[in-house]
Amino acid sequence: MLTLSFPAQAFGTNCYVIADGPGEECVIVDPGIGIEETLREVLTAHRLKPAAVLLTHGHVDHIFSVTPVCGGDLAAYIHTDDRYRLVDPLGSSSLGPQLSGMLEQQFGKKVTWREPETIVEVTDSQTVTVAGIDLEVIHAPGHTEGSVMFAMGQVPEGVPADAEVDRTLLTGDVLFAGSIGRTDLPGGSHEAMQDSLRRAVHPRADSSLVLPGHGPATTLGREKATNPYLQGLS
Question: Which residues form the signal peptide (predicted)?
Answer without folding.
Answer: none
